Amino acid sequence: MKRVRWNGKALMVAGVFWLFIQAGAWADVGVRALGMGGAFVSVADDASAVYWNPAGLVQLKGQELSYTYNTRQSSRANRNDLEFRDFVNKDIMLDHFLAYARPVGDKAAFGIQWISDKTDYLTRQNFKEYTTQDTVGLSYATKLDEQTSLGLNLRFVNMHQVNYQQAPLSFGRSADGIGFDLGLLRRLSEQWQVGLLLQDMNRTTLTDVYLQQTYFSHLNIRPGVSYRPNDQVTFALDIYNLNSEGVGKSGQKLKAKVAFGIEGKLPLMQNEERPLTGRIGAYLDAVTVGLGYRHQRTRFDFAFIGGKYDTAQVGLTFEF
């Protein structure tokens, strides 16, 4: 009997770590980008480019500091109410995202990011546990010519699981890994721009030392295209997981999905500067809407993601 409980606990640990690995490619961040349906690979013109496409950092005119908070409670799940595969394959949204970026001379840019999430759940033994994921990333971008830029992300990932009943000794499960992303951005004309992100191009490996198990992320190829008919409106389209690599819910192979978004500056009481921006998009299987308000060099952003995500994000960006 005791051995059965241990096997169940080991399975839960493996499942939780696998959840974060598989969901990582879908756990997107940045309020403005999500308001546009997550179609941002070919736009990537603010500090959140450190996640969406590091090559876009060369578009920054100055330094930016951006913070995103996710208000959702959807990651909290009762293990007893879910089948195992449903639990470990559910999509997640991350709690905190902090990014800083700045130009380096006329042809390069640098950025740093921090992403954090905490997921609570109950085990079959009715133990309350939580898993945390923290990612710290460094980004560098450079212009290859006046129309083309290349960017690279180096990410350090840590996952840790804690059992509330055993804290502060904790449940003692942790895993670490290093990941790489490669981004490309090219301007085709004044209106058209294309981008490409190779996310987890080294198929990030996380090793659980305690259980002597290794978990692998999958390569996510994400191309995108954007069209700006004028300086007031942007249309963008991305393809997620173009290579259809990885396994999702119920063991099914992950398929490529399309994200689409529109961003437009809105008139506000005849204000010619148009500080208010509206956004709408299709984020995988959900509809998103967003608003942004700029006051001098500060931007406030809000986004709502419907469907199974049913969550809101708020953000604050400083330009200096």
CATH class category name: Mainly Beta
Strand arrangement in the largest pleated sheet: 1-3-4-5-6-7-8-11-12-13-14-15-16-17
Shape: globular
Low-confidence stretches: 1-27, 73-92
CATH topology, by name, is Porin
- Percent of residues in beta strands? over 45%
Distance N to C terminus: 62 Å
CA-based gyration radius: 20 Å
- Write down the overall mean pLDDT: 78
**Can you give the helix content as a percent range?**
10-25%
In N-to-C order, the SSE pattern is: HHHEEHEEEEEEEEEEEEEEE
Second rung of CATH, namely the architecture: Beta Barrel
Give your account of this protein's structure.
The protein has 320 residues and is mostly beta strands. The protein has one domain: Porin. Helices cover 11% and strands 51% of the residues. The chain has 4 helices and 17 strands. It has helices at 2-23, 31-35, 49-52, 84-88, and strands spanning 64-70, 77-78, 96-104, 108-122, 128-143, 148-163, 173-187, 192-199, 205-208, 213-216, 220-227, 233-240, 257-268, 271-283, 286-295, 298-305, 311-319. Strands 1-3-4-5-6-7-8-11-12-13-14-15-16-17 form a 14-stranded antiparallel β-barrel. The radius of gyration is 20 Å and the shape is globular. The N and C termini lie far apart (62 Å). Mean pLDDT is 78; it is low at 1-27 and 73-92.
